[in-house]
Amino acid sequence: MKRPVLWLRAGGFAAAMLLLALLGAWLLLGRDRSPIQTDLLAMLPATERNPLAEVAAQRLAHANGDRVVLLVSNADDGRAKAAARQLGHALADNPVFASVTAELPPFDVQQLVAPYLAHRFWLLTDADRQALARPGYDPAQALAQRINEPFSTGVGTRLQDDPFGWLQHWLDQQPWSRSPLLPEDNLLTAHRDDRSYVLVTATLNGSAYDDSIQQRALGALAQAEHRLAHNLPGTRILRTGALFYAAAARAEAEHDVHMVGLISTLGIALLLLGVFRSPGPLLLAFLSTAMGIIAATTLSVLIFGQIYLLTLVFGAALLGEAVDYSIQYLSARANAGDAWEPRQGLRQVRPALLLALGTSLLGYALLGLVPFPALRQMACFAMTGMAAACLSVFWLLPAWLQRPARPLSTASVQGALFLQRFVVRLSGGRRGALLAVVALLLAMPGWYQLRHDDDVHLLISPPATLVAQEQQIRDITGLGNGTQFFLVQGVDGEQVLQREAALDQRLQRMTDAGQLQGWLGLSGMVPSLQQQHASQSLLAPLFAQPQRMRQWLRGAGFRDADIDRFIQAWPGTPLALADWLKSPIATPFRYLWMGEQERAGAAALVLPQGDATGALLREAAAGLPGVTLVDKPAGISELFGRYRRYASLWLLAAIVLIVPVFGWRYGLRHVPRVLAPPVLGIGFTLAMLGYLHQPLTLFHWMALMLVLGVGANYAVFLREGEPHAVHRPGATYASVLLSAITALLSFGLLAFSSMPALRDFGLTLLLGIGFTGLLVPASAPRTTCA
């Protein structure tokens, strides 16, 4: 290949990468919304076998995704309410919030009661139904009890509209009546621990996962909070919402990217300068790696439409593996001395690079088989980055590296040669067999201590302060969480309400036993028509003789005009679900109704409140037709566990697939020696994880697959490079060690990530690559290091 051809090919490759870089810059910066995905739920796989359950889980997760919940508190009741008003006004003046609710508009409590008066004889509580069904029910006694009831501070019916209190009893069980938050001075207020808490809610004018929305909203909140601290000392604000979790996740990911990227870049730069003793190889190595990362980022956004935080941090660590290809070519140039010729050097390293690329792509391809969006994107990112970095060595570096280079530093070569000979001596003969037995005995206790933990919460670690604030808000306000819920399905709305009523019976028993704080569902607000007819039939005997009813009411002191209106209201009409859903009072609860669909029928959600275990909730749903418990965290944890169990088979499959490739290249009898370092590295890594009491997760096994691929690369680099550097023993192993140390400086730093999943990933790679890098001299032919 002539020099003009080299330059032409290099120019074409550089132009293609430039276009790809411009496209990537436009995808990341040139659009209205950033493609960086901070929604942690978006990374998680679908877990529900029922498609409607998965839709419901996503709907519920994002029902309040753009809502911010704030609880303003102060030991002084007046200050707490004044602070809530000031906070509401401050946020309402900022266009980043579409709506803010602090002060409630003035309203008459009767506005809540009036829509139910026409249905008063159809809406009975369980207690009233049981009382009416018992023989000897005394209406006069019920009237006396109603008249002597203490004055109600909540939503109350007028005595003349509801003389027996049936509707009042039913209203007392509604969510707005049971909430710890009560209207005071047009503010929703709760009193607890000698402090007043006032609720303020706001809806963002955009997505909580949009970077610009996050910055503006958090800035507005910080400014308002600063003013409140100055104007009304002692005021505290509790906060929860997707906005805060997304912003925290973004901040942690940016910190990890900067930490991993900066430290690994500086470390690799110092290593390359020390070994190659020239800034030129350093710049070319980083150029090759940068091209890989640019290509990976651009294609990932093009294919997936977004890029996850997990992928960004992983991409910063990819630097240490992508640089391996250029290191091997640069080492070949340094070892050739004055005899260097770029095309000949490329022919020397091409088999090793292609073999190494193939094993790496195999490992990442297996990673991409997992039905987990984040892992698939990481696999796509890595495969694209590896391929682009390798192609840059083939098509770009030969044109730039025409002249010979200084040899590798003497210290690095002599140190590598000493370590290589030491490992070869220890691994040979009877001494090697004895050491293998000792290593096996030392590893066995570690393997024995291995355990697993598939909890999805190991994937993400939200700030403890946010979690504590959310828990405190739930305790004070009674608001539940949406991680567990019941999906109730039926052929139509009536059947759904009937099935939900059966579930309510079980949930009530749990509540009475103190196992559940409560629940939120539609059937408690809109009973099924079957139940309403049953309630109305219980009242029918009392109204069968209007004169007797008139006598009871007159005896209790009611006026004739009020008696006439009450009797004439009988029998009223049942409350229809469709009509109730259209009413203003249904607005906060409409998300519980999934609607009616042709094939799926109708469905509704029931939200348990409190900290009931998944086992208890599953028991509540057991045997009820059409009722399914949807527990998203438990479902994802189960999925992680299932694929963790498969992972060992995938690892074995990867080893089996590598065997014929290495057998074709080196002969089957040499395959065990070539594969021994990565396989032993995996075994020792598992032992160390056991000694460290690290519970195995899916991410540990995914990292072990990469240990296999990277370790096989090192064996290939050493075996392929030794014949070309026979005049300088130790030079090839020096380049392999350089590759291993650069990988440790990048992937190993993930062990210090704020994301638990990446910490598992990084620690496993740190151990696996370390062990493999030290053991790889044992894979070389004995004659090469004598």
Automatic annotation (TrEMBL):
Keywords: Cell membrane, Membrane, Transmembrane, Transmembrane helix. Its main location: membrane. It holds the Pfam family MMPL. It is found in: Cell membrane. The chain crosses the membrane at residues 6-29, 257-276, 282-304, 352-375, 381-401, 432-450, 647-667, 674-692, 698-718, 730-755, 761-780. It is a multi-pass membrane protein. Coiled coil: none annotated. InterPro entries: MMPL_dom, Mycobact_MmpL. Residues 193-400 form the Membrane transport protein MMPL domain. This is Membrane transport protein MMPL domain-containing protein. The lineage of its organism: Bacteria, Pseudomonadati, Pseudomonadota, Gammaproteobacteria, Lysobacterales.
